[in-house]
Specification:
This protein is an alpha+beta fold and 447 residues long. It has 2 domains: 82 residues, no CATH class; 300 residues, no CATH class. It is 60% helix and 9% strand. It contains 16 helices and 9 strands. The strands form 2 sheets. Strands 8-7-6-5-4-3-9 form a 7-stranded antiparallel beta sheet, with no helix packed on it. Helix 4 runs antiparallel to helix 12, helix 4 packs across helix 15 and helix 12 crosses helix 13. The longest helix is centred in the middle third of the chain and has 30 residues.
Length: 447
């Protein structure tokens, strides 16, 4: 027998066991993919210190242990006792880099012996510290600056969602939006992926907007979409500005950006919807009544393009705070890339990390940061370390500030539109509907 939905329409019963099994299989597959990618990236990370000697077109990796000041112009290096010197090396190199030997790596003169004598080994040497070495030299000041930047970026996201909720006719107090945002950050720690907290935010926002459930739900999606669109825009601009280093990425990023803009324009255009028979297609989708409510909620945003543009513009401030966080962490690890390079690296790497391929983007984000840092002339190890440290700082913000928001009293979530001057809840709801009807699309159902 068909089930009757809350909106009064009939919907076929769902095959919940089958849907549950499919969801479980999808989550398990995503988890396996995440573990596989992390394992692959971990296998590429240099966990121990090494020196790469390039001579006569050949590259030789010499494992060992560097001194703490590995970024200094001169740093000590002890060759690993397990290193096997190739037979093809000249006698001087075999003696200088024998297992257990101690030398000094001099950026200006190459390799010096224990007696501080310059060794004429030829070729060039590249210092490649391992991940433990990079973290052991971390300047804690960079961690503090990164945490403050992440926190500032989160507050920018609070303001953006606050604006978007108002556009969706779901006005909420700024403190309530702040609390829900940080509660979402907390649940991002507990739930897999970067959108787990969004599900909690959506549930709480829907609870506090019973007359605008679809609008409150869609506000989460629009907030995330605007952030991603701004991220893609910043990445595309920097790819065009930087030059040949990122030429291979120009077409994919431009296509993604163009597709997002085209989809938004088509969805909000009456003529395009009529030509594509968009409403006719919606009528024939499963759960058509609910899908139409979501569609009508999305159309609300096309009625206020300037305010929506403000939410889009403020997203760039959030991404700039992310750039500052990565820049502070990279400098704390000893990196010397200028800020302009991070303006290209961070948006592109974060865009790759935001792809819903693995839980939380783990693995892909580290690979992207490592590749881009190396592409700009820095150390891939520092890039991967900065990515991991960024996640750890975000985790700290989620635990401390998200946990505090979870324990804080909720208070009244809605603003006065919910019932100011109307002690009767039913009249308050009618007042809210009449007040918002002027800005709603024709045929909008407020339930």
């Amino acid at each position: 027998m068909p089930q009757t939905s809350a909106e009064g329409t009939s919907a076929p019963p769902l095959d919940r066991p089958r849907a549950s099994r499919r969801g479980t299989l999808l989550r398990a597959g995503k988890l396996l993919l995440t573990l596989a990618v992390i394992a692959l990236v971990a296998s590429l990370v240099p966990w121990s210190d090494q020196v790469v000697w390039s001579v006569d077109g050949e590259r030789y990796e010499v494992p060992g242990e560097m001194g703490r000041g590995w970024k200094d112009a001169r740093v000590g290096f002890t060759v690993s006792s397990e290193f096997v010197v190739p037979e093809t090396w000249p006698p001087l190199a075999r003696e200088a880099l024998r297992p257990g030997a101690s030398v000094t790596l001099d950026d200006a003169h190459g390799v010096r012996s224990a007696e501080d004598e310059v060794l004429e080994l030829g070729g060039t040497f590249e210092k490649k510290p391992g991940m433990p070495r990079v973290f052991s030299t971390l300047d804690p000041t960079g961690l503090v600056l990164a945490i403050l930047s992440i926190l500032a970026g989160a507050l920018v996201c609070v303001v953006r969602w606050w604006w978007i909720l108002a556009l969706a006719d779901c006005p909420m107090r700024l403190w309530a939006v702040t609390r829900l945002t940080f509660v979402g950050l907390f649940y991002n720690i507990l739930l897999p992926g970067t959108t787990g907290g969004d599900l909690v935010k959506a549930a709480l926002a829907v609870r506090d907007n019973p007359l605008r459930r679809a609008n409150a739900l869609v506000s989460i999606f629009v907030d995330r979409l605007i952030g991603l669109l701004a991220l893609a825009t910043l990445a595309a601009v920097m790819i065009l500005v930087i030059g040949d280093e990122l030429a291979a990425l120009r077409i994919p990023v431009a296509l993604f950006l163009a597709a997002g803009v085209a989809a938004a324009l088509v969805h909000s255009s009456r003529a395009a919807r009529r030509v594509l028979r968009f409403d006719w297609i919606l009528e024939r989708l499963p759960l058509a009544a609910r899908v139409k409510k979501v569609d009508q909620a999305l159309l609300l945003y096309s009625k206020a393009p300037l305010k929506l543009g403000s939410a889009y513009a403020i997203s760039f401030v959030n991404h700039l705070f992310n750039v500052c966080a990565v820049f502070a962490l990279a400098r704390a690890f000893g990196d010397e890339l200028p800020l302009v390079s991070h303006l290209a690296i961070t948006p592109i790497a974060n865009a790759v990390s935001s792809l819903p391929l693995t839980a939380g983007g783990w693995g892909f984000g580290e690979a992207a940061y490592g590749f881009l840092f190396a592409l700009f002339g820095s150390s891939a190890t520092i890039g991967m370390a900065a990515s991991v440290a960024l996640r750890l700082c975000t985790l700290f913000v989620g635990i401390v500030f998200g946990g505090a928001a979870l324990l804080a009293p909720g208070g009244p979530e809605k603003t006065e539109v919910r019932g100011k001057g109307h002690p009767d809840p039913a009249k308050a709801g009618e007042h809210a509907e009449r007040g918002a009807a002027r800005n709603l699309p024709i045929g909008y159902d407020p339930s």
